[in-house]
Amino acid sequence: MKINSKRIWFLFGLSFLMHCIVVLLIGHYKQPVLWENGMIADYLFSGRGFCGDFSVIGEPTSWQAPAYPYLLFWTWKLFGKGVAAYLFISFLQCLALASMLWPVTALSRRWFPRVPELIVQVLVLFAPLYLWYGTRLHHTAFVMAFQPWILWGWLVWAHRSIPGALSVGVGTGLVALIQPVILAVFGIIGIALLVSTLVSRAWTQSLCLVCAGMAVLLTLTPWTLRNYKTQGRLLLIKDSFGKEFWMGNNPHATGTGYAIGGTEEITNLYPPECFSKRGLIREMDLMDAMGSEAASWISLHPLQFLKLTACKLWWMWTVPPKDRVRSTGAAEAILFRSVYLFYWAGILGLSVVGMTRSRPACEYGYVLLVFVLLYSLVYGLTHVGQARFRGEIEYIFFPAAAAGIFSLWGMLLSFRDKSLKQ
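Request: output the structure for the sequence above.
Response:
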């Protein structure tokens, strides 16, 4: 059965309109916060190249993935640094987020074929994180939007034909240039698919999957070569792990990126010892030094590390304590805490119902496990506390949540019918 084309186009238009209205109401584009992406884009715009200030001022950087800084740069080139540029990017993000309706619907039908597609479409339509992150001038909106497209591509198109495989591989590489974490997730999924086709001796499908993997690497190669030339080491996309690792594992670590109270980042209030060399050594050397400090702290405090990691894993899939999340600036973790808590508790609860009562395809269980374990590993080792960390993969729970709603609705109707017969 095909997806209802007329309805999904209508919902796409409605979703795009809703996102645009939220953008205009929030008004972030008037004085946006651009974070590290904006700093790098400023260097690009001034003609000094892909540079940053993490250690030596204006040195070539590999602190951030390149896609979003270049998007800012080219938008400034077209519209200038002002409201028009930021509105354009915001509406582009709204368009991307609205497009999620297609792959999430397709995935839901693949895994829970008996569940009406409208349910998962409504979940995507009103998901508060998607509405909110369309208003942030940050790469998160694109990561949220493109992940389900890439997942659908690997599960359905990567093994069907060489052109399809190349398209999926290039798409994966481009999204990885926005958020490199996805390489681990889709790498595992791609390898699992390849092993499956090799075991079943589906040689044509195996060749397609190999081509998809090669396309990923070829897409990343130009940026990898740039990193090798500027940093003198092999970096596929970026290297900020040392910093993130230290933020989550140090004598003053709270489990999030912020000190108790949420007013200051942990690196600002309690800087690592190696920051005494900041500005004197290269960015990569400073990242390495932060990572070494974190590793030393772990080796000296293994029980504290395990306890803190357990807390981070719990907070990753629930909500961190209020005094450990950012309380300055937009501070969405404080402003929308109740909304996030209610919404996420509902999604989790409905997902449990959907998984236990609707018997999804086995593939769904495997894919869900990969996402949960990989993201738990990344943020368990580093730090949690920002909704966007989990928000990037929340869509993976929507098909099960939709199945849970459908199951509960069926139980309610059955109970009503029994009551009427009595």
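The longest strand covers residues 51-52.
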